[in-house]
Amino acid sequence: MSAKNNASRFRKYAATPQAQTLAVPAAGMERIDIEQEVARKQQLENENTAQDIRLKRITLDRLFRFLIAETALIFLFAFFQAVNWPAQFRLEEWSFRLVVGATIAQITGMLFVAVRYLFPNK
Question: Are 52 and 117 in contact (CB under 8 A)?
């Protein structure tokens, strides 16, 4: 196609007054109240924030319950290791240290991730 054909094609679009077509509401459509829309937007943002807070609390509660159970289990391992009970419970020293160290590292890492992602700096 030539430049002349393209120019004639786009001339009809340039000639239509877009401001007039945008300013006139379509037939059957009611006018939108800006104040109601702003209030509706604010209400949706408030509901979103409330739901976000609720989900963060649930997630943090579950995380803390899991970490408390895990810490109690490691405490029981340490206790059984110290008293050799039940039925001569005994882990090798290197494996016991590995389990305790890995658990402490995991707890620290999970708390770091929870604080960082559940409560970001805004």
Answer: no
Q: What six digits make up the tokens of 77?
A: 């391992």
Find all residues with CB under 8 Å of 84, minimum gap 6, and list them: 90
Question: In the 8-state DSSP scheme, what is residue 87?
Answer: T
Q: Does the predicted TM-score (pTM) go above 0.70?
A: no
Q: How far apart are CA 90 and CA 82, in angstroms?
A: 9
DSSP 120: -
Alpha-carbon gap, residue 108 to 90, rounded angstroms = 26
pLDDT (tens digit, 9 = 90+) per residue, 60-96? 999 999 999 999 999 998 888 888 877 777 888 899 8
d(CA 120, CA 114): 10
